[in-house]
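lol ok so funny story. i was supposed to be doing the assay writeup but got distracted and ended up predicting the structure for this chain instead. priorities right. anyway since i did it might as well share w the group, maybe its usefull for someone
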Amino acid sequence: SVPPSSWRADVDARHVTDARRGAGSGGRVPNGLAGPGLSIPARRSFCPARARPSDRRLVDMPVQEMTALEPPHVVTLLDEVELAARCSAQAAGPIPWYLDPVPDGVAFRLLVRRWADSASKDAVLARIGCGTALQASSLAIAGLGRRPVTSFPTEPGVLAVLRVGERREPCSEELAMLAGLRHSGVPRRLEPPVPEAGLMPWLRRAAERQGGWARRSDTVLDEGVGPAWPDGRTVTGRPATMIVGADGGPPLAEVRLGRVIEAVRLTAAALGWWTRIAAAPADEDRLRRTLRGGTAQALLGAPRRGTALAVLELRPSQCLSAG
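and the output, tada:
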């Protein structure tokens, strides 16, 4: 679906200056995307889409009133959060989660309750997809000028609850990701393109902000390391391969991995790079066999239980055509 015109996020080529310069700065990441670097316009990228004109906007409500949202504001919140969630990256097949209203927010529920803690392939894939949707929805709340607050209750079938917190302007990284979400992750075409050396520090930073990690691999990995997600695009050229991961054990590691994937994907889109989810989840044993020896050790560390992994392929938008 195409996001409505109320998503007012525009990022032009002058805002990627530091990402281009990063190729010659030893990979140093400036302090925030704002500074003299990737300066995203300080405007809200998400606005209530269908609130009645007579309603006060959710973003204008005093903090103390957020403890009990009135029905019109609940509708506004649900509209914005659901729209963002459905623009997130998802695996092939039916969407395995749905949103359920709770006081001041929404709960992310799985269609099959046992998927919340099952080790089956379908369950792991569902939790990762819920994580990408959770990240997109959190950005929607940030775009409304509020702090997204996430909790992980023990209720069966509920993976996460996302609530509206106090008033807070979105940071420059969130605005960059919102710019990518506005176009469902389709990258902007930048001339000249941001070089790979300037891109990677931002993607590592995006992953770390979500509690994960991201590492560049020189190996083009086999298709058999995990299920690829559909993207409907034809691309050319050798990709830059990135392995992303989240530690901590199931089910939260898979949810966190989904958040990392979406954060990296949207940050890359804002910088003019297309992301293909080549394998999510990636099988660690197969991944180690493909990488071999010291490379596997350097990228993945010592074998350990509880790590959720994915393989991403990145290409500049100039390599992209409609599929």
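Residues 1-17, 24-69 have pLDDT under 50 and may be disordered. The longest helix spans residues 121-143.
back to the writeup now i swear
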